[in-house]
């Protein structure tokens, strides 16, 4: 009996030491969202820009973990977001919150009362949840499955920027590319498109080619900023995106999730084809884009 009591006491002491001094969070909140992890990841990052962030939201190693530090009055709270996919349209989010200045006091109070720290944490997480719900109601992604990137001859300009700047980069260059093609009497061969050449998921930065597919012509000038290349047919996973083109990259994440679930190795260099002109306005949920994620060939 004494041995059991000593063992029980030791377990209690170790549990207290872990809880008070080693446990990385003071408070944990869990909730579910009817969308895929990439949409949550991006919402956290852009929602972060509206807050008093000491350390901006950054993902840690993968899109499934995002960390940030926020200032509330005289305190700095760290938020560690873990995003767990449940199925194609449902994710669980686990939020570990820590007050860096008052962690020990919070751990002593949290089990026994509803502290201001807990109320602040719940209010902050609720604010994010509302942002996510608002965002996912503004777009729709449908996975088609395996298809082919169509072969095209491409007149384009190379562009760099962040994911959120992608649509702006397209609009800034659309008139220029279209004018050169029109003035030189080249024939269009499909709607505008982009081909991503580099995607840094940690910094959300891109390098991509934007332009028009055309019928190859000897009349096209070679002394402008416009470049030309042939895009060859390639096996790819395809999705159809409806919504504002600013956030068409949500379909990229949906395709990556689909590839992971189905053990398909892909190249993170999506191709997007745009069927609507944003300058014409209208219901954004009627805007359509076809999104392709190239499948890595076995000999590559």
TrEMBL record:
Signal peptide: none annotated. The chain crosses the membrane at residues 6-22. Pfam families: GyrI-like (PF06445). Residues 142-296 form the AraC effector-binding domain. InterPro entries: AraC_E-bd, GyrI-like, Reg_factor_effector_dom_sf. Keywords: Membrane, Transmembrane, Transmembrane helix. SUPFAM superfamilies: Probable bacterial effector-binding domain. Gene3D superfamilies: Regulatory factor, effector binding domain. The keyword Cytoplasm does not apply. This is AraC family transcriptional regulator. It comes from Flagellimonas algicola.
């Amino acid at each position: 009996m004494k041995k059991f009591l000593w063992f029980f006491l030791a377990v209690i002491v170790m549990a207290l030491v872990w809880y008070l001094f080693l446990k990385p969070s003071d408070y944990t909140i869990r909730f579910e969202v009817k969308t895929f992890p990439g949409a949550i990841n991006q919402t956290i990052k852009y929602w972060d820009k509206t807050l008093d962030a000491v350390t901006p939201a950054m993902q840690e190693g993968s899109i499934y973990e995002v960390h940030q530090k926020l200032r509330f009055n005289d305190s700095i709270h760290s938020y560690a977001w873990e995003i767990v996919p449940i199925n194609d349209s449902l994710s669980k989010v686990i939020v570990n919150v820590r007050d860096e200045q008052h962690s020990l006091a919070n751990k002593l109070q949290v089990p026994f009362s509803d502290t201001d720290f807990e109320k602040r944490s719940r209010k902050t997480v609720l604010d994010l949840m509302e942002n996510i719900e608002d965002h996912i109601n503004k777009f729709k992604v449908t996975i088609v499955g395996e298809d082919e990137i169509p072969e095209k001859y491409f007149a384009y300009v190379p562009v760099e920027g962040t994911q959120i700047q992608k649509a702006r980069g397209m609009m800034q260059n659309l008139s220029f590319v279209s004018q050169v093609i029109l003035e030189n009497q080249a024939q269009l061969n499909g709607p505008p498109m982009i081909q991503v050449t580099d995607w840094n998921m940690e910094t959300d930065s891109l390098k991509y080619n934007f332009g028009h597919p055309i019928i190859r012509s000897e009349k096209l000038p070679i002394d402008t900023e416009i470049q030309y290349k042939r895009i060859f047919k390639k096996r790819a996973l395809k999705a159809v995106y409806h919504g504002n083109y600013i956030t068409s990259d949500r379909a990229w994440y949906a395709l990556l999730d689909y590839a992971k679930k189905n053990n398909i190795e892909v190249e993170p260099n999506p191709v997007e084809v745009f069927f609507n002109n944003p300058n014409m306005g209208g219901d954004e949920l009627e805007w359509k884009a076809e999104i392709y994620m190239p499948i890595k060939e076995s000999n590559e």
